[in-house]
Design a protein that fits this description.
The protein is an alpha/beta fold and about 260 residues long. The chain has a single domain (about 5-130, about 165-230), classed as Spore Coat Polysaccharide Biosynthesis Protein SpsA, Chain A (Alpha-Beta Complex), CATH 3.90.550. About 35% of the residues lie in helices and about 20% in strands. It is built from nine helices and nine strands. Strands 1, 2, 3, 4, 5, 6, 7, 8 and 9 form a nine-stranded mixed β-sheet that branches. Helix 5 packs across helix 6 (about 150-160). The chain is globular, with a radius of gyration of 18 Å.
Length: about 260
């Protein structure tokens, strides 16, 4: 365990391949000392030992069952002693200066609750992850954009794909694959809403965070996300996505 870390981080695992070690390596090599927490929803000892070899200070919370993404992240919240908490997927990589630069930016802007980076695929293509508040037409735009307008237009509006963003801007959706959040705000919000098993937990926590300050997307902060869009190929994950979307609209109201 790291004494008095300014930054903590949590990675949630579920039958995760060893490529998670690339993510752990980025945490270990960061200019900012980061206390790493790992919540393993599949309790795989082999991965745990590999991570421990890379980061002996890492703290593990193996689970007897799959808690889902939000609930698993919430496991570590009572144990955090940091100023900032990093939530990241096990398929994220970033350079060694990123976290320290993000911390410096949030230090200089105390009204920011969540800072969200620009996200690229390993091939260098920008992923244009959603940054507007989800609505019915925006969510329809994704699976139907191949049919052209108006669906492709809705998708582009949702992801701000056609906007040239060169300066930090306020957003209503911070991607859950990588977000830096003030720990005290995470306490106040009581973490993620555990009614979402998977999907929409990040859009939900963003709207909760807006009650406490700004959520900012910073185009000069970059991460790489080896995103494979599993929900588009798995009926089970697609079902989770649909159920979570209904829960989101039930909680926050239906918007066209």
């Amino acid at each position: 365990m790291i004494d008095d870390p300014r930054v903590s981080a949590c990675i949630v695992l579920y039958h995760t391949p060893s490529t998670v070690l690339d993510t752990v390596k980025c945490v270990v090599n960061s200019d900012e000392r980061i206390q790493l927490y790992v919540v393993d929803n599949s309790a795989e000892l082999t991965i745990q030992r590999l991570i421990e070899n890379m980061d002996p200070s890492a703290i593990f919370y193996p689970q007897a069952r799959n808690l889902g993404y939000g609930r698993a992240n919430n496991v570590v919240i009572p144990h955090l002693k940091s100023v900032y908490h990093l939530i990241l997927n096990p398929d994220i990589t970033f350079d060694h200066t990123l976290v320290s630069r993000m911390v410096q930016y949030m230090d200089a802007h105390p009204d920011i609750v969540i800072l969200s980076p620009r996200v690229f695929s390993p091939d260098g293509q920008e992923q244009h992850l959603p940054r507007r508040r989800p609505t019915v037409r925006y969510l329809l735009g994704g699976p139907l954009e191949k049919y052209g307008k108006p669906f492709s237009t809705w998708r582009d509006e949702y992801t701000m794909k056609n906007e040239e963003i060169t300066v930090p801007i306020d957003v209503e959706f911070a991607t859950g694959c990588f977000m830096l959040i003030r720990t005290h705000a995470l306490y106040q919000m009581k973490g993620f809403d555990e009614r979402y098993f998977l999907y929409q937990e990040d859009s939900d926590i963003t709207l909760k965070a807006l009650r406490y300050g700004h959520v900012v997307y910073h185009p000069d902060m970059h991460v790489t996300h080896a995103w494979n869009r599993e929900d588009s190929r798995s009926k089970k994950l697609r079902f989770y996505h649909i159920v979570s979307t209904f829960k989101f609209f039930w909680k926050w109201g239906l918007r066209w």
